[in-house]
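Hey L., structure's done. Input below.
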Amino acid sequence: MRGMLSRRLTLALIALAATVVLQGLGAVWVLNLAERQVQRGRMASDIQLGFVELSATKKELRSWVAQLQQGAGADPAVRDRLQAALRQRLQALQRLADAARAIDGGADGQAEQLRRLDALAVLGRSLVALERAIAATGPLTPGADARQAWQALSAVFDQSQGRDLRELLADAIAREAAAVARERQAADRSMAWTRGLWLAMAATLALASLLAALHFARALRKPLQQLSDGARALELGQLQHRVPPQGDAEFAAVARSMNTMAAALAAHQAHEAGERQRLEAQVAARTAELQGALEALRRADARRRQLFADISHELRTPTTAIRGEAEITLRGRERSADDYRAALRRIVEGSQQLAEVIDDLLAMARSDIDALALARRPLDLAGPLAEALALAAPLAAERGVALHAPADAADATPGRAPRRWPVLADPQRLRQLLTVLLDNAIGYSRRGGQVRVSLVDDEPGTLMLEVADDGIGIPAADLPQVFDRHFRGATARLHRADGMGLGLPIARSLAQAHGGTLVLQSVPGHGTRAQLRLPLTDAEPAGLGGGTEAEPA
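Output:
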């Protein structure tokens, strides 16, 4: 459906076109009228000139006749030429009169044409009579009356059928001159009217165009401004801007199209923003993963470095125990076969522990100590404790430290049923944990000192194993850091140069892996107490020892 603005614009254009067409038609009509008047004036002028020339030729022919009568040697060729000129001018005047009659059909024009045709008819008959009279005229005979001859010839030249040819020609010339003047004035009036018509129609057309321009400018200014504002808003990215769909149907349709486009662009922009956020989230996630992988690599590298320190620490204790057992056996007095067999059994047990430590260290190369899986099972704590005491005894003897074990753990008299301490633990890991505690207590004791191991029920469902020494102790400032890897206080380094600061961190990790805790209490210069708390279990232990059985002697 076409809008009101289109209809108004179409009507305005049709009106302007009709005005232009009417102006053109009026101009054509006026021009045709002026052209006809100019043609009539030109014909009247030509007829006037024809009559003047006819009169002049007739006068030349009269002069020739006078010469002939006077015997002045008139040339017949001149007579023939003048007579031919008279006939041609009469014929030309006849054609002009016929043409003028064709273009001038008015009543006044017809009367004038009749008078013109009548004059030409009289002149035609006069010319025929004049040619007969001239043909019969010759030189005057001697004694003839010249005056009478001239009057007779003048009557032929000036009279025809009782009409005075001179008056006829003068009247025709005057009438044609008046016609020329009249047609010229009519042509001037037509041109002036044409000029006025052109000016009036041009002014009308200009005024109509101006009014149409003002009307459409007022009608178009507001909607065009709104569309321009909408386009500028789209250019600036203000996709929430909407063009009011008001006014004519055409602009309302364009406004709706722009609003639809803006909404589509906004939806596309929102979708693009969502996709960008999703991509940024993916990039952030991938970056976090890469950072995590990098951090994992760093931790793995740190664990590799720690591995070498752990290897040196973990291998030192069983190696020292094996060497101490062998040296004690070789230095002492001669022993019985049973004593040597027992010493060799302890050396074999230390070797087995060394092999197990090597296996653990190889496992640590693939995973952190905190992530190691424990093969936990119900067992009696007395077994791993007895094994750890047996391994620590040579080191204590070498350093001159007295090692006191709990009565239930040290007494292995056949037939006596020692007290059970059932826990859920990995025997190898538990023995490793106890060995670390005993090694630290012995290593930081003074020669002649004592290390005491006790087992008590700390609280319902919990067993506490305490390893107490009367050694150098730990300064209060160093106590919060002793479980940090590679930390060794100044007092510890002065007392014992070797060591990597890994024993206690490993021991606490093993305690936590068993569901227990490990805390230290120390008085500088008076010793340290390591308290290991483990949960008891109701399950029946698999065996008394809970460790690896020794080979028979």
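Confidence is low (pLDDT under 50) at residues 544-553. Strands lie at 159-160, 163-164, 377-380, 402-404, 422-425, 450-459, 462-469, 517-523, 527-535.

-- N.
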